[in-house]
Queue: 2 jobs
Job 1
Amino acid sequence: MKAIALCNQPGIDNLTVVDRPMPQPRRQEVVIRVSATSLNYRDVEIVRGTYHTTFPLPLIPLSDGVGEVVAIGDGVTRVKVGDRVCSTFWQRWIGGSFDMAEPSYQLGGPVDGLLAEYALLDEQATVPAPAHLSDVEAATLPCAAVTAWHALVTEGALKPGETVLVLGTGGVSVFALQFARCAGARVLVTSSSDEKIQRAKALGAHAGVNYRDHPDWAAEILKLTDGRGVDHVLEVGGPESFAQSLRAVRRGGQINVIGYLGGTEGVINPLDIFRRQVRVRGIPVGSRASFEAMNRAIAVNQLRPVIHRTYEWTDVGHALRDLESGAHFGKLVLRH
């Protein structure tokens, strides 16, 4: 089979098409024919060699994908040949708290990912794809969607009438907007683009703040909430934006730390967390149980992921550079 791998050293230009043996499922393993994959910022960092953890090479990247089961090993009971399934990011985090996750079983690093014609998965790391979604749409779910759901619903216990602040309009933020609206919450969004804010409003956002026009965007969020602050923040910017998120959240509110697009350097005063009694948690994607609960909600609401652009899977370098640019609204997807 064909796969695309980092073989000797990191770098987008070092991604190489390679021939690999067709995977053979062992006990409780399945092989899928990959039909679509999607990109996350983690993939960019792993490929360019800037991720906080270094993985041995060669490595087939990408964590998100969907495909058809074409072979099963002994003892497989969760799926059958012909089923359409999504992968899970954590191959062995079925449910429960994060201490149930095993770091050595993260798909796309250190475990080979889905940038290939076929992929080998643990049967426990498969989830049926929502029937109403296309392959391109279903491929977006395993990381970005599960992260947003795990933050707001599994951990955050989001309630109707609460206010959610999403930073930016990337994959996690747009899914958070959609899930929050389905739950009856009010959504505020920040962006550097008025056009993106208008697109977010079309999806149901109540209002938005352009942080280029309003560098002190926390003050604008407080105005929009009559000084109270928001109940939940999806924090993707890093230490610099975190300080403003602390000002924008209500006393006793929640900040879900998703990423660090704005960098990893900065100063955070822990007394600000103490004074406001804010709950701060890191969100490491989520468990299979979160994924399955999310898919039920997606099916009931007939929700569709927002796709910014699709590419042929062999054009992954182009797609990664587009993701790096930050110009997207929603997800970037590769067709296999």
Note: The chain is about 30% helix and 25% strand.
Job 2
Amino acid sequence: MSGKFITFEGPDGAGKDSVLDAIVPELRAQLGDKLVVTREPGGDPIAEQIRDVILDPQNTAMDDRTEALLYAASRRQHLQDVVEPALARGAVVLCDRFVDSSVAYQGAGRQIGEQAVFDLNQFATNGLQPDLTVYLDVPSEVGLARIEQHRKDTQYDRLDQEELTFHKRVRAAYQRLAKANPQRIVTIDATKPLNQVIDDVRSLLRHHVVTD
């Protein structure tokens, strides 16, 4: 595949949406139809339907392994329909969350095993890895406070019901992933003012997308 696959990761409240909202128009102006912006879970019609099931706040009885399997199923469909065709035609794909999220949230947060979730997703993705992962790091307390400050009723989903200890496990897993994969995962300090975080991500992408 000749394109570039760049993923964005971070615990809840890290500011991924705000950063992407700022940088996507700039990249679109440079790359045109060579830029594909997508998300997980979701990104195509079937995967979006699975997303609705996963995040429905009414589905409190969902088993933890069922949740992990649904994420992997959504991911597989998304890769087949969106990511792999875009990479094959040489596009730059920016994806909001990928396998690292499942390892962190289901493997560590749900405590069903980081390696087990990683192995499940190796099957789902056939081993596809991002060329670059931008990890926005923020303490759990800070991230959750941001979410509460900006919350709207329509933004409330099933994962928002989790306690602080869950989110701390998620962040710790992300930090382990970043330490274990330094060539792929670049950590950005998301406690800085938003404009500085955006500048840091912009500089990183300029190197990887434009001059690399």
Note: The first helix runs from residue 16 to 31.
